[in-house]
Input
Amino acid sequence: MQFWVARGSEVSIREQLVTQVVLGILSDDLAPGQRLPSTRELARRFHVHPNTISAGYRQLERERWVEFRRGSGVYVRASKPEISASLAPGLALDQMIARLFRSARKLGVTLPVLRSRLRQWLELQPPDHFLLIEPDEELRRILAAEIARAVTFPVESCGLEDCPRMPEGGMPVVLPNREPKVRQLLPPGAELITLQVRSVPSSLAGCLPAPSGALVGVASRWPEFLKVARIVLNAAGFHPDSLVFRDAREPNWQRGLKQTAAVVCDLLTAAELPAGCRAIPFALLSEVSIAELQHYEDVINQPIASS
Output
């Protein structure tokens, strides 16, 4: 079996070696008792430090794929290791991949053709997570938490600078003011869900009109949240002296909040309030957008009905 390495890959050379040996054993390209190339030989061939190869072989030994024979070398074990519950999903996938490559070789399918077909199949698969694209880090954290609370799909997030050109497996979601720039980053015609922001007055309707003499706290890690809350609450009749503002990024931001009647805050900050504080979490995303995300998830998860 020929080993190789892909330089510049995100996968370390050690992990590349380990994966190739495991796939070789699973696909029977490496037979029980077969001797593997020496550490020195592979280090010289790949122009890497011997410790890198040695670390890969030690990992394979720990996972019981190979065994060291003193003075002789590294050999494939006579029997494959028992697959533990924690490793079963990954190894089951490795076995599927090994069978695919073995079947392709029997059919005479070349690696470039196989790679091309795999790429086509991957591009046809529906998304399996939402990708929130938002440059403001604090706002991004709040929105991701709100989405994660409403859906079962995993939620990943990134800024504009690290937005992938091809978000593999992810459905991009974005706020309206970011949509034009994000569309420039994505391929032409790429699907994109534009989120809508909830109406501030309607969300705070439950605590209006303002109670006379009540001390109300406002807390968030997102500066814009504090700014908008000040404007809205003042317009709703809250006296400026009755509002206590706290930037949750600052030290000791929780001081004084226990003395307030309630604290208006974002979803993340609500979980960090002192015990005993009455939180009034303000959801940024509109109910329409939450329903749209849930509907999209249902459509992806629902099998195609047979006619």
The radius of gyration is 28 Å.
